[in-house]
Amino acid sequence: MSEQVSRWDVFEFSIKGPAGGNPYLDVNFAATFSLGNRDVTVPGFYDGDGVYKVRFCPDTEGEWRFVTTSTDKALAGLSGQLSVGPAKSGVHGPVRVRNQFHFAHADGKPYLPFGTTCYAWTHQTVELQEQTFKTLADGPFNKIRMGVFPKDYIYNTNEPLFDVYEKRADGSHDLDRPNFECFRHFETQIGRLMDMGVEADIILFHPYDRWGYCTMTEEQDFRYLRYIVARIAAYRNVWWSLANEYDFLLDTKPMERWDRFFQIIEEGDPLRHPKSIHNGDVDKNYDHRKPWVDHVCIQNWDVKKTLDWRAAYGKPVVNDEPEYEGNIPKEWGNIDGHELVHRYWLTLCRGGYIGHGETFLDANDELWWAKGGVLHGEAPARIAFLRNIFEEDAVNGLTPMLERGTTYKRVSAVQDGDVRYIYFGEHQPVEWALGLPEKDGDWEIDLIDVWNMTVTPLEKGPLPKVHPQRITGGSHITNQFAAAFGLKLPGRPYLAVRIRPRKTH
Predict the structure, then answer these.
(1) Containing H/E element for 128?
(2) Residue 369 · residue 358 · CB < 8 Å
(3) How many CA atoms lie within 13 A of 221 on its CB side?
(4) I want to staple 70 with a disulfide (CB 3.0 to 4.6 A). Which of 75, 232, 491, 497 is the partner?
(5) DSSP string spanning 3-54?
(6) pLDDT tens, residue by residue, 337-348
(7) All domains of the chain, ordered by start, with CATH?
(8) Coil, strand or helix: which one is 497?
(9) For residue 157, what are the CA distances in angstroms to 68, 206, 351, 371, 484?
(10) Distance between start and end Cα atoms, the chain
(11) Are 336 and 325 in contact, with CB atoms under 8 Å apart?
(12) What pLDDT digit, counting tens, does each position of 316-326 carry?
């Protein structure tokens, strides 16, 4: 009898097997799923107490069959079938790169990442984790950066809820024996995020460690990576972030090992979830041109360089750490909400994506960026506002206008089809025409106040006056605008303009 599964949901096959010795080291287990002439091999894993599992996310409707393989005869040759029906309402499948610089779900629905960072939230008390879920449910974020391992860092020095690996009698960790309870809890939280429509950007390694996780041997690293991929790759909302600040780990994990990490993920992830890697030093970006990197994950406060990163790497740019809204005595953690919102608009209107983080001092050291909990800043409401604006007309992705023009190194402008956005940022013109449509028509024009969250209709106006200008070589340019009309503006900073064909209902 077939088990009924919806497209892009998780199917799990579980079987009892040998428990002696150390199956994490000694037993390989996998299954091949078949539909027609298509075969998909998925790695399985040991879940403790003699239980072996394999998880599969079917991407196609139909009658699938599977058969297991294993180094243990008792686990080999087991078979079954599953009947895959349509996706549930609201489920659009895993996110993938689309149109070179952008993202979409597997069914084609555009996906604009509006992520936040909570590095060690799954390692906190159950009560604090529940508060994090509530905050996410009420907030603007559709992606969260989160680490597999706990973190030893200022404001984040408590012991984790669960050890990731078993403790020996002397208190050290046996890095060849996973704590299955920890992994079960971690994937449960991923599943809950999935049900909420929140992507889980999984940070696989980081340098802030006192438990020995960042100094595992190469063999232990590879085994851990295969294990976590086998456990969670079937969740449609997973993204892979190989590291937070990988360059701070080069003393223990050389560059060639990072390259191999990407390949191991590809070998075990048939859904091909997005993969990237995050730098610490702004001058130590990984070479995102490598073919196994799907998108550029970057840490840099100078968001006006977004155009440069697009040109350098030719892939989607996600600046996950443009600095955080907060007040801690760290230069990366004390910009105000206004500045963070400004950086959001700069980034999006240069064809990139950007992430949120919050670091306000707290008597209990419960800072959102580290542990989740509650948000205190002014930026999230404005992020919700801009997310609604950009998602409303999203089709193919935001393409920078006149990327090589010097004007757009200052003022930011993008378009998606017939829809244009111009963000003036710190500039405060009272007249404008550059980047406006060249053909007159029935355009809906709106003035957007990015901080006060208002949208005000604008009327077409006359073109600003111009004067011919001598250029190098003695010739002249007319400086005539190509636009069919101009705009009159209030003459204050942090405004944007949206121009789109008027909608008829």
Answers:
(1) helix 126-138
(2) yes
(3) 22
(4) 75
(5) EEEETTS-EEEEEE---SS-HHHH--EEEEEEETTEEEEEEEEE-STTEEEE
(6) 999 999 999 999
(7) 3-85 (2.60.40.10), 95-392 (3.20.20.80), 399-501 (2.60.40)
(8) strand
(9) 43, 15, 37, 11, 60
(10) 49
(11) yes
(12) 999 999 999 99
- C-alpha–C-alpha distance, residues 315 and 104, integer Å: 14
Buried b / exposed e along 436-449 (16+ C-beta atoms within 10 A): bbeeeeebebbbbe
Confirm if 32 and 46 have CB atoms less than 8 A apart.
Answer: no
Tokens representing 25 are 């080291």
CA–CA separation, 80 and 318 (whole Å) = 41
φ and ψ at residue 144, rounded to 5 degrees: -135, 130
Give the residues across from 307 on adjacent strands: none
CA 167 vs CA 173, 211, 439: distances in Å: 4, 10, 70
Alpha helices in 353-443 (DSSP H): 368-371, 379-392
Quickly list DSSP for 207-236: S--SSSGGG--HHHHHHHHHHHHHHHTTST
Q: Specify the 3-state DSSP secondary structure of 63.
A: strand
CB 241 within 8 A of CB 201: yes
Helix ranges restricted to H, 48-143: 126-138
Say what the pLDDT of residue 232 is: 99
Integer Rg of the chain from CA: 25
User: If you write DSSP's letter for every residue of 228-288 in order, what string do you get?
Assistant: HHHHHTTSTTEEEEEESSGGGGTTTS-HHHHHHHHHHHHHH-TT---EE---SSTT----T
As a whole number of angstroms, the distance between CA 14 and CA 49 comes to: 12
Exposure pattern of 417-426 as b/e (b: 16+ CB <10 Å)? eebbbbbbbe
Q: What share of the chain is helix, strand, coil (3-state, %, to 5)?
A: 25, 30, 45
Identify the band that residue 475 occupies on the pLDDT scale cut at 50, 70 and 90: confident
DSSP-assigned letter for residue 405: S
Q: How confident is the model at residue 472 (pLDDT cuts 50, 70, 90)?
A: confident
* One-letter amino acid of 387: R
**Cα(180)–Cα(162) distance, integer angstroms:** 10
Other beta carbons within 10 Å of 8: 26
Instruction: Report the mean per-residue pLDDT for the chain.
Output: 96
Q: What are the backbone angles phi and psi of residue 85, rounded to the nearest 5°? A: -105, -175
**How long is the chain?**
505
Using CA atoms, how far apart are residues 95 and 276, in angstroms rounded to an integer?
13
Q: Which two tokens stand for residue 505?
A: 């209902």
Q: What residues does 243 pair with on adjacent strands?
A: 205
Q: From CA 208, how far away is CA 505, in angstroms rounded? A: 55
